[in-house]
Amino acid sequence: MLLIIINAVALGLLTGNYSSSTINLLEMIDDFILGIFILELILKIYSFHGEFIKDSWNLFDFVVISFSLLPVLGNFTILRVFRAFKLLRIFRFFPELRRMIESTSRSLRSIFAITVLLSLVVYIFAVMSVMLFGNSEGVGEKYFGDLGSSLFSLFQIMTLDSWAEGMVRELIEKEGLWVGFYFGFYIMITTFTFLNMFIAVFTNAIASVDIDDGDNVGFSKIVNEFKQEISSLREDMTRTINHLKDEE
């Protein structure tokens, strides 16, 4: 973890304007730490053999180091950005971060489904907006003149970024008050409803991870207490049945 922190500091300093000797020193530090990570990975593969690929975090390390090697194997400047991927290895040292990653991976299917549904809703509103405002001079033609502009404008509205002052208020003045209800309904569907859906998916995934890990806090504590009550009730019923049988 110390090497990862040093590497993070070195990568940050590499973005500054320093002398060539300082830049060379920082690059040497970065390459040296990368070499240690590669050596560690090789020793793990040698030591664990086939067991290496059974650990998902070993595979995570392998992918991260592979991306970090791209700047060494290629001469393209753009590949230098992959050096930052080495910093992701810090996830291994914090159980909370690992739990978040596991929760995200469990949520991918649901997130994909919600994203597809959200994209469909935005696309429908984009087509409708072009038909409603595309021929309106000024702000309507500027923001909803074609499908591409309409999609981008609706994405901006969905993020609640300057949607009222620079866009909707002018359309209300030209088209009428119904425009406000139209975009208000769009915001209610996309921004609030789908945001809550994403939150619900992540909350459910985090709760399932907590239960699997056997934690006794939060939702996991409630589930564990419920299981204990069920187990206690089952034992009481078993004793009662056995007692009745003995009396017979």
Structure, described:
Helix content is 79%, strand content 0%. With 248 residues, it is mostly helical. The chain has 2 domains: 2-93, Up-down Bundle (Four Helix Bundle (Hemerythrin (Met), subunit A)), CATH 1.20.120; 99-213, Helix Hairpins (Orthogonal Bundle). The model has no long low-confidence stretch (mean pLDDT 81).
List keywords for this structure.
248 residues, 0% strand, 2 domains, Four Helix Bundle (Hemerythrin (Met), subunit A), 9 helices, Helix Hairpins, flat, single chain
Based on CA atoms alone, the radius of gyration comes out at 28 Å
Q: H/E order of the elements?
A: HHHHHHHHH
Strand tally is 0
Annotation field: number of helices: 9
Q: Report the helical percentage.
A: over 70%
Number of domains: 2
| Cα-to-Cα separation, first versus last residue | 68 Å
Shape type: flat
Secondary-structure content class: mainly alpha
Low-confidence stretches: none
Oligomer: single chain
The chain-level mean pLDDT equals 81
| CATH third-level topology of the largest domain | Helix Hairpins
Topology at a glance:
Layout: H1 2-14, H2 20-48, H3 56-73, H4 95-133, H5 139-144, H6 147-158, H7 164-175, H8 178-213, H9 218-247
